[in-house]
């Protein structure tokens, strides 16, 4: 059977405007939990609290099947439109098949090749360091990111966000938000330069 055509950003945008209308609370507290409960029983998924990463192949396969079915059954909720973006199983399979098998993150001597890893892989995982979306003060933003960049174990940076920009709240959709995002990128690059890690993935 031929795979469906991979979806474009335009397809997803159209579905975000035309998908089933639903309250966010209903999707979060009813649709998702009920579907997860059903899939847990269907695929006999049980959590072993002593095992952080499962290595049982049957469990791994069942987790993948359940995850894919969860996506197809529930879709993805779009907060902006209050609608559910739905995908068919064939579209999900096409997206998986078209996903890159490897890519380069960063540049120069700091370039890192990102490749899939199995649970038994001997290759060390890529280490991403940073405040990861956490609010950071203007005063300490640069130093915080430099502290991550100068750690030899850290391969790439996942930056935080500015609490304020020139003392102003970066309200979403405002010019201050744009200024904050630009300042974040400039300061993270400066932090990497200070740590002697220019070119780190960001």
How is this structure best summarized?
This protein has a two-stranded antiparallel sheet. Strands 3-4 form a two-stranded antiparallel ribbon. A two-stranded parallel ribbon has the order 5-7.
Can you tell me about this structure?
With 202 residues, the protein is mainly α. The chain folds into two domains: 9-98, no CATH class; 105-194, no CATH class. Helices cover 43% and strands 10% of the residues. The chain has six helices and eight strands, in the order αααββαββββαββα. It has helices at 9-18, 24-42, 57-74, 89-98, 141-149, 175-194; strands at 76-78, 83-85, 103-105, 112-114, 128-129, 135-136, 156-157, 161-162. It has a two-stranded antiparallel sheet with strand order 1-2. A two-stranded antiparallel sheet has the order 3-4. A hairpin with a 6-residue loop joins strand 3 (103-105) and strand 4 (112-114). The two termini are 39 Å apart. The mean pLDDT is 94. This is Monomethylamine methyltransferase MtmB. One of its GO terms (molecular function) is methyltransferase activity. One of its GO terms (biological process) is methylation. Keywords: Methyltransferase, Transferase. It comes from Pseudobacteroides cellulosolvens ATCC 35603 = DSM 2933.
């Amino acid at each position: 059977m031929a795979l469906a055509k991979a979806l474009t950003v335009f397809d997803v945008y159209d579905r975000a405007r035309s998908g089933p209308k639903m309250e966010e609370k209903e999707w979060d507290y009813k649709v998702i939990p009920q579907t997860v409960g059903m899939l847990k029983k269907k695929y006999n998924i049980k959590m072993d609290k002593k095992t952080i990463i499962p290595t049982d192949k049957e469990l791994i396969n069942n987790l993948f099947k359940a995850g894919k079915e969860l996506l197809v059954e529930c879709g993805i909720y779009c907060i902006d439109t209050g609608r559910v973006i739905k995908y068919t199983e064939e579209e999900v399979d096409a997206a998986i098949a078209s996903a890159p098998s490897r890519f380069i993150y960063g540049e120069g001597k700091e370039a890192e090749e990102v490749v899939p890893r199995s649970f038994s892989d001997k290759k060390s995982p890529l280490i991403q360091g940073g405040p990861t979306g956490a609010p950071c003060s203007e005063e300490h933003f640069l130093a915080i990111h430099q502290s991550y960049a100068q750690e030899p174990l850290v391969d790439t940076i996942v930056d935080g966000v500015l609490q304020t920009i020139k003392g102003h709240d970066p309200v979403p959709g405002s010019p201050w938000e744009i200024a904050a995002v630009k300042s974040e990128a400039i300061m993270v690059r400066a932090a990497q330069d200070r740590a002697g890690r220019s070119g780190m993935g960001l």
